[in-house]
Write a structure and sequence with these properties.
Order of helices and strands: EHEHEHEEEHEEEEHEEEHEHEHHHH
Strand order of the largest sheet: 4-3-2-1-11-12
Helix content: 25-40%
Number of strands: 15
Low-confidence stretches: 395-400
Largest sheet: 6 strands, mixed
CATH architecture of the largest domain: 4-Layer Sandwich
CATH class of the largest domain: Alpha Beta
CATH superfamily of the largest domain: Metallo-dependent phosphatases
């Protein structure tokens, strides 16, 4: 038996960047073609299939085309909702794909809190949803697990693990390894946007990383892909779905004038072969004089595009002026980690009687991330948000909510 394990596909990411907005869909289509050519039996997607719970029509159309292509090729897709797929109202694009018969959500429990299993070719699969701020931790503490007799078992999840957090995500909320259900042959994980391998009781606990980068720092280490696991041969093969090459220019701006940084960027661009590549420009340090807007980045980007780069992105988050040198927040950190850290710092100062302030804050941020859909009337969008807020406030007290209801909240 052969199965593919991918995660964090984030269809619909980079929506505000015309030259990148279709790349996540291209990466998923390329991954699907590899799975078909490699004759995989099924695909596991460990959360964040979409970048938002209700993507645009174009993104949904692309997802339908690719999942149908896999379905017609005899390849089943098993998913769990991730922190981006999740919706407080339960209304997500994943449910549309499942209704069409192209994917199956394996994050499910019965009325007693027991994990429900899906079986394919004598393989038992079950999983857990992912939430922002590791709010799924409560679910892990309340489930029961009895793996049915089978020749192979897979647990699918979307959670950072304390013992396996990369250093740059040290502030991200995470679960302890001890929270995971025991006895599975393979733990298919996601959420952490970095490829690495761990284990639980000697069994593989795998993070494939994103199928396509979602931010600058990931672009600077771009080598995305997914695993195909052969259970009989006990072999795993990494499959790259890298769509393009990139060049990274780094600038030390310490004690320099804006025009000096401009000239250094220009000199480096002229020395590089960037045709058909993504150009990334990263600068750090404290300017001697002037302001960041004094660096004419638009001219630099235009020159790079004329030289053949298909896109130019900059990261000046660590380039500052002396008057702002004391800012403490590292803006290059994962956005979700910044949100979680700020919530942690301030929730103790703002209490709501009867509510977990941290959980309420995270769930409201999830709800507020909803986007107005194409052709959706303002009143309909407003009512959708109100419904979401109402559901959050009504269901917040987890100890009074059945676990099965929580999975569908």
């Amino acid at each position: 038996m052969r199965f593919a394990h991918m995660s964090d596909v984030h269809l619909g990411s980079w929506s505000a960047h015309p030259e990148l907005k279709d790349k996540a869909c291209e990466a998923f289509s390329k991954a699907a073609d590899i799975c078909i050519s490699q004759k995989t039996d099924f695909i596991i997607i460990a959360g964040d299939f979409f970048d938002t719970s209700m993507p645009s029509i174009d993104v949904l159309k692309s997802a339908l085309e690719t999942t149908k292509k896999l379905h017609d090729g005899g390849i089943s897709i098993y998913v769990v909702p991730g922190s981006h797929d999740f919706s407080p109202t339960g209304k997500t694009a994943l449910s549309l794909l499942e209704a069409a018969g192209f994917v199956k959500n394996v994050a499910n429990v019965d009325s007693d809190g027991n994990l429900v299993f899906t079986k394919i070719n004598d393989v038992a699969i079950s999983g857990m949803i992912g939430r922002k701020g590791s709010l799924e931790h409560d679910y892990f503490s309340r489930i029961s697990c009895s793996i049915p007799e089978c020749r192979y078992s897979i647990f699918v999840m979307h959670s950072a693990i304390n013992e396996y957090k990369p250093e740059h995500l040290k502030d991200m909320a995470a679960l302890p390894l001890s929270a995971l259900p025991k006895g599975f042959d393979y733990y298919a994980n996601g959420h952490v946007h970095k490829k690495f391998e761990g284990n639980i009781d000697g069994k593989p606990l795998i993070f494939p990383g994103p199928l396509f980068p979602t931010e600058f720092t990931e672009m600077a280490e771009y080598d995305s892909g997914f695993w195909i696991i052969d259970t009989e041969a006990k072999e795993s093969k990494w499959n790259s779905v890298k769509l393009f090459d990139f060049e990274l220019i780094t600038i030390d701006g310490d004690n320099k004038e804006p025009h000096e940084i401009y000239e250094e960027m220009l000199k480096k661009i002229k020395s590089l072969s960037i045709s058909g590549k993504l150009l990334l420009i990263k600068a750090r340090g404290v300017l001697k004089n002037g302001r960041l807007p004094d660096i004419d980045f638009n001219s630099i980007a235009a020159i790079a595009l004329e030289k053949g780069a298909f896109s130019v992105k900059k990261n000046f988050n660590k380039l500052t002026t002396k008057e702002y040198e004391e800012i403490k927040i590292d803006a290059s950190t994962n956005v979700q980690s910044i949100e979680e850290k700020l919530i942690e710092e301030h929730c103790s100062q703002s209490k709501l009687d009867g509510f977990d302030t941290k959980e309420i804050s995270i769930r409201l941020i999830e709800s507020l991330s909803a986007e107005k859909q194409e052709d959706e009337a303002n009143a309909v969008f407003e009512n959708r948000l109100k419904e979401s807020f109402s559901e959050i406030l009504r269901l917040d007290k987890a100890d009074k909510v059945p676990l099965k209801a929580s999975f569908n909240d």
